[in-house]
Amino acid sequence: MPITDALGIDEQRLPVVDAHTHTCGSDHDGPPQDVVACLDGCGVDKAFMFAPLLRPQGWELAVEHLDDVRRNNDYIAHFCSYAPERLIAFAVLNPNPAIAGGDKRRAVELMIEEAERCYHELGIRGIKMVPDRWTPEDEEALPLLEALARLGVYVVFHCGIFMDGRSSSFCRPTFYEGIHRVDGFHGHLAHLGWPWVDELVALLMMESYHREPNPDDPWQLKADFSFGPPPDWRVESLLKALDSLAPDQLIYGSDAWWPQTPEQYAKHSLVPHLTAFEAAADLSRQGGGDDPERRARLRTGVFHGNVMSHWAKATRGVPQNLKPADSAPQTGNTWRGH
Length: 338
Hints:
The protein is of the alpha/beta class.
């Protein structure tokens, strides 16, 4: 039985884009065809695939880890080149000053160079960043944000607390007000910023006021509801977002870490997110009430249309043009899950 049928969703097929998944590295992810098979088995059209995160974090980072950043970005371009219409490659950038011997400006310059290499040489159109000893409010970070907007890439930021003990103090939603300085910037914040959901909702509500209204392109930032809120907070967090934000500002992302079987992905990612969304929509004044067509439009936007329209604005319609390597790049110092 299709997952949507089991949940009482009447559409013949709910289109799904998973806007938040992680790879773990060359000795762990398995072949890319297994990811495509998982997506096929769960009815998912596309997945945003983040390059492996580095295992050293914060003050543990050092100059020698710059090569790891580059290798991991080479890896994701190679991995996703197997099915570029399904697997959307995201390079990971980190202008942590430790990667440049403590020099904030030089760290930003290095990440601009890497962003340009990823765009022009690897054909990548997506960037994932986890603020770490820097924030988008920092003046030193501004040239990097401007460079990403100028290139035409879609940026996903971690937003909210970490559950693995890393410092979250650089990832509070309010720090992303700095994005509003950069014309043409498009991306989204992850995890509804949990536990700072109210702060994230307030930040995204600012999107309606910080610049001249543009009905064709009203948003710089949206938000995904990938796992961040624990089960007891999921429906409440989603309800706040649905009631307070525009219907096209909310995005589905699973926060799944590959490899996954279709059964694992359905049980631990797609079904929990769908059920939480349906529960919140039942309670929301924007959920459609007794109008199934209105609910269907909301659901399809959240699980597919909202992120794809934002992706098109960010990339200006330029498709990824991924360059496979002669052999699979090897990755080291990679994070292996939550």
